[in-house]
Amino acid sequence: MQEIFASIVHEPLSYDVGPLQLTGFGLAVLMAFVIAQIIAQRELTRRGYDPEPIGDVVFAAVIGGLLGGKIYYAILMHDASALFSRAGFVFWGGLIGGILVCYAVIHWKHLSFTRISDVAAPAIAAAYSMGRTGCWAVGDDYGRPWNGPWAVSFPHGAPPSTVANMTELFHIPPPLGSSPNQVLSVHPTELYEVALGFVMFLILWRLRDHKHAEGWLFGLYCLDVHAVETQSRRAGYLCGRTTARITLAG
Question: Are 93 and 69 spatial neighbours (Cβ–Cβ below 8 Å)?
Fold first, then answer.
């Protein structure tokens, strides 16, 4: 196997504000929820309904998403103490948790779940694309070793893309003659998902005037996000799926 080096070297994005550290992932998640709320409110208004409940639904999505992502992570790690660690927010757990808590809030407010989910579909897709920029910002969820033209190395990623991590965490054979601390270049799957997520948003936005029953657009979103995640696996998406090492800070 040929040694793999990258011309693009990634450095994590973070800022220290007094005693707080704000990371690119935390900022991306914040912007994702803001963007989702704006899109959902405007779409609900366009359809002739009161957009006021969207704020409560988005708040429910934040709570359910964070709890679901953390619980899913603890289950995958078979470690209850992981519930109290800083790392470990998994997308699929967050999606399931967000849907469940949002459903409870929507039911409590006597709203139509299918109607809200329909307007939420393009909003969630846009939020997905924005959220994945946070994975890029902290150097998480990269792909398998690769030496292509846009290959990226993550010397300070989460975790760093070293030979040792590739071997111990992901069971990928090391290049011949390489040292454990050598940093390898990999597929930047975070950026693939940003692009695919944006395409997913454009498709759903284009189809928002569909004539099907309410809730159809959300069903299409679920199929789309599954397709995006499948394409990521084909590019060798490692961190988020095989070890659930998704770090949220800030």
Answer: yes
